[in-house]
C-alpha cells in the first residue's frame, strides 16, 4: 500500500472540496453577511408574492455587504428588487442555464433551479427595471422568466436588469424572455462585468453607454431559449443584440447573437459621444445587419478579430473612427444579401485576412 499516494490524494481531494465549497452559499449560511430569502419569508411556490421577503434580505445584507442566497424554487416577484452596494443576489446555478422546457408554462412543478418570475410593468418599456443594481453589486446563478409574456403578440416590459455605479456584475444568469435584457447605459456604469449571460431578449439585448472606465462582456449567448418563431418574426424585424454608445474601452469576447435585425449597433447617445471597443471571437448570425456603425471614437474606433458575420456590415456617413476587421468571415443570406460591407464616412476601414462568400443576391454578377 502506497501511504504517500493515499495521503497526496486525500490532500488533493480536501483542497478541491475547500475551493469549490467556497462557491456554495449553503455551507456558510448563518455567518455574518450571508442570508437566505427563505429566512425572510420567501415561499418559492410560483404563486405567493415574494417581493417583500427578497427586499428585506437584500436590505439586511446591505448593512455589511454580503450574499443573499436564493434556494431552488420559483419565486413570484410582483414588484421590483433593488440590490444594494456590495451585495450579491445568488441562486444555485454555477454556469448559465438554458431553456430546455423546464420553464414552459406557469405550473410550479415545471420550474427547476433558482427562478424569479417577473410580472410588473407589462405594457410599459420605460417603467422601473425589474432588478436595479448599484456599485459593486452582483447578480449571479439565477434564471428570470416573464410568465405573462405573449409568444405571438409580445408586449413591452421595462428593462429586466439595470445598473448605476461602477463594478456592477452579472454572472451565470439566464434571462428567458425579457423585452429588454440589460441596461448598463441609461446611467453611468463603469467597469461593468457581464460573464455567462444567456438570454432571449425580444427587442434589445445589452445597452452600454456612459462607461468612462473599461467595461467587459464575455461568454454571452443571445439565442431563442424561449421561442424560435417569435425571434424569426418580431426580433428579426425589430431587435438589436448589442447597442453600444459611449464606452472608454469596451472588451467583448465570445459573444453570439442570432435572429436580430442588428447584431452589434455602435452609436452616440445624447451628448456623451461614441465609444471604442475590441470585439474578439464573436459572431452575429442570420440577421439582415450584423454590424451597424453610426459613430465610433476617432482616435481608437472599433476592432473585430476572429469574428463571423451573417450578414452585412453597414458603416454610415457619420462615422469618423477607424474600423478594423482581422481574420473575419462574411457570408450572406440567400436571396437577401446585396452588400457584405457598405462603407461610408471619413473613418479608415480595413479588412485583413478576411473571406467573403454568398454575395450577389440579385444575380448581377457583382461582388
Q: How would you characterize the largest beta sheet? A: 20 strands, parallel
Overall structural class, as computed from helix and strand content, comes to: mainly beta
Low-confidence stretches at least 5 residues in length (pLDDT < 50)? 1-22, 105-109
Rg on CA atoms, Å: 22 Å
- The best one-word shape is globular
CATH topology name of the domain at 33-240: Pectate Lyase C-like
Element layout with pairings:
Elements: H1 3-21, E1 34-36, E2 45-49, H2 51-62, E3 66-69, E4 73-77, E5 81-83, E6 87-90, E7 114-118, E8 131-133, E9 138-140, E10 143-145, E11 159-163, E12 169-175, E13 180-184, E14 193-199, E15 204-208, E16 215-222, H3 228-238, E17 240-244, E18 250-258, E19 262-266, E20 277-280, E21 283-285, E22 289-293, E23 302-305, E24 308-309, E25 312-315, E26 323-326, E27 329-331, E28 341-343, E29 349-352, E30 355-357
Parallel strand pairs: 1-3, 2-4, 3-6, 4-7, 5-8, 6-9, 7-10, 8-11, 9-12, 10-12, 11-13, 12-14, 13-15, 14-16, 15-17, 16-18, 17-19, 18-20, 18-21, 19-22, 20-23, 21-24, 22-25, 23-26, 24-27, 25-28, 26-29, 27-30
What does this protein structure show overall?
With 367 residues, the protein is mainly β. Helix content is 11%, strand content 36%. The chain has a 20-stranded parallel β-sheet that branches. A ten-stranded parallel β-sheet has the order 5-8-11-13-15-17-19-22-25-28.
Amino acid at each position: 500500500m502506497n501511504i504517500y499516494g493515499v495521503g497526496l490524494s486525500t490532500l488533493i481531494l480536501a483542497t478541491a472540496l475547500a475551493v469549490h465549497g467556497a462557491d456554495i452559499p449553503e455551507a456558510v449560511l448563518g455567518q455574518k453577511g450571508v442570508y437566505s430569502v427563505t429566512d425572510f419569508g420567501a415561499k418559492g411556490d410560483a404563486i405567493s408574492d415574494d417581493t417583500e421577503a427578497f427586499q428585506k434580505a437584500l436590505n439586511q445584507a446591505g448593512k455589511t455587504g454580503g450574499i443573499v442566497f436564493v434556494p431552488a424554487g420559483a419565486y413570484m416577484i410582483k414588484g421590483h428588487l433593488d440590490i444594494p452596494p456590495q451585495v450579491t443576489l445568488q441562486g444555485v446555478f454555477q454556469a448559465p442555464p438554458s431553456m430546455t422546457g423546464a420553464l414552459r408554462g406557469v405550473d410550479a412543478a415545471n420550474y427547476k433551479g433558482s427562478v424569479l418570475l417577473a410580472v410588473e410593468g407589462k405594457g410599459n418599456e420605460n417603467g422601473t427595471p425589474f432588478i436595479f443594481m448599484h456599485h459593486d453589486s452582483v447578480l449571479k446563478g439565477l434564471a428570470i422568466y416573464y410568465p405573462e409574456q405573449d409568444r405571438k403578440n409580445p408586449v413591452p416590459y421595462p428593462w429586466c436588469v439595470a445598473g448605476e455605479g461602477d463594478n456592477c456584475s452579472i454572472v451565470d444568469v439566464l434571462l428567458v424572455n425579457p423585452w429588454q435584457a440589460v441596461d448598463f447605459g441609461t446611467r453611468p456604469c463603469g467597469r461593468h462585468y457581464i460573464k455567462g449571460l444567456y438570454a432571449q431578449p425580444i427587442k434589445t439585448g445589452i445597452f452600454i453607454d456612459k462607461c468612462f472606465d473599461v467595461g467587459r462582456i464575455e461568454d454571452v449567448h443571445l439565442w431563442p431559449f424561449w421561442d424560435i418563431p417569435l425571434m424569426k418574426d418580431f426580433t428579426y424585424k425589430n431587435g438589436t443584440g448589442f447597442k453600444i454608445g459611449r464606452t472608454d474601452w469596451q472588451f467583448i469576447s465570445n459573444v453570439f447573437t442570432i435572429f436580430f435585425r442588428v447584431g452589434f449597433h455602435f452609436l452616440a447617445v445624447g451628448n456623451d459621444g461614441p465609444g471604442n471597443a475590441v470585439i474578439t471571437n464573436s459572431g452575429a448570425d442570420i440577421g439582415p445587419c450584423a454590424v451597424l456603425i453610426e459613430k465610433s471614437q476617432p482616435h481608437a474606433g472599433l476592432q473585430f478579430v476572429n469574428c463571423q458575420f451573417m450578414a452585412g456590415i453597414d458603416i454610415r456617413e457619420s462615422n469618423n473612427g477607424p474600423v478594423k476587421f482581422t481574420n473575419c468571415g462574411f457570408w450572406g443570406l440567400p436571396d437577401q444579401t446585396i452588400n457584405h460591407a457598405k462603407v461610408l464616412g471619413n473613418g479608415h476601414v480595413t479588412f485583413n485576412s478576411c473571406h467573403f462568400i454568398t454575395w450577389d443576391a440579385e444575380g448581377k454578377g457583382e461582388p
